[in-house]
Amino acid sequence: xxxxxxxxxxxxxxxxxxxxxxxxxxxxxxxxxxxxxxxxxxxxxxxxxxxxxxxxxxxxxxxxxxxxxxxxxxxxxxxxxxxxxxxxxxxxxxxxxxxxxxxxxxxxxxxxxxxxxxxxxxxxxxxxxxxxxxxxxxxxxxxxxxxxxxxxxxxxxxxxxxxxxxxxxxxxxxxxxxxxxxxxxxxxxxxxxxxxxxxxxxxxxxxxxxxxx
Length: 213
Ligand code: ATP
Hints:
This protein has a single domain (about 5-175), classed as HUPs (Rossmann fold), CATH 3.40.50. The chain is α/β, with parallel strands linked by helices. The protein contains ten helices and six strands; from the N terminus they run βαβαβααβααβααβαα. Helix 2 runs antiparallel to helix 10 (about 200-210) and helix 4 (about 85-95) packs parallel to helix 6. It is globular and about 45 Å long. It is about 40% helix and about 15% strand. The site of adenosine-5'-triphosphate (ATP) has 17 residues, from helix 1, strand 4, helix 5 and helix 9. One of its GO terms (molecular function) is ATP binding. It catalyses: nicotinate beta-D-ribonucleotide + ATP + H(+) = deamido-NAD(+) + diphosphate.
């Protein structure tokens, strides 16, 4: 069965934490393709500080040499907030009965029960949760218990991604890189360099356009 990974984010800016996790999941779980989906108006957070064309251009620059990584612009082309459930539904309509996997960091997964129509998400896709090696479920906080229960109910072996189109949750350890876009924006705002946290091509764009100053 054809299998596609879907990696959504604000990518404000895209950094090696995103890219390395996406690559390790791509190689380890044998996706035919990883689609990076920049969000337009994120429902769960403040407006991004850089416009969507610039965020898109940075993602393009970051993945230009990586085979099977593609940009999916559907959230930027859509009016209104970027709900992942709508994105997955529209991919399902486009791609038919393939395997779709929503890739997310553990932090994002623990907040999933607050997402718009989150239960529908698992009817449309699998979820692959990238976590730090050695992390345990009992470290989750009270507010995150629903996500932990969901994981216990739906947890599956990685082979499910090749066998079924949707419905499983797969936990995968990836190399932990403690990089966040928030910290990168702060660094640049304070006049420091963000080099070696992001691809050089992305850093050159930030410098040229004076982003995040
Ligand atoms: P911000 O600091 O602005 O909140 P971010 O760096 O967390 O941004 P997002 O675009 O919000 O990046 O995240 C998109 C996805 O990437 C989420 O699923 C998140 O869990 C994951 N992610 C972010 N940083 C890392 C990282 N360092 N390692 C692995 N996954 C990450």
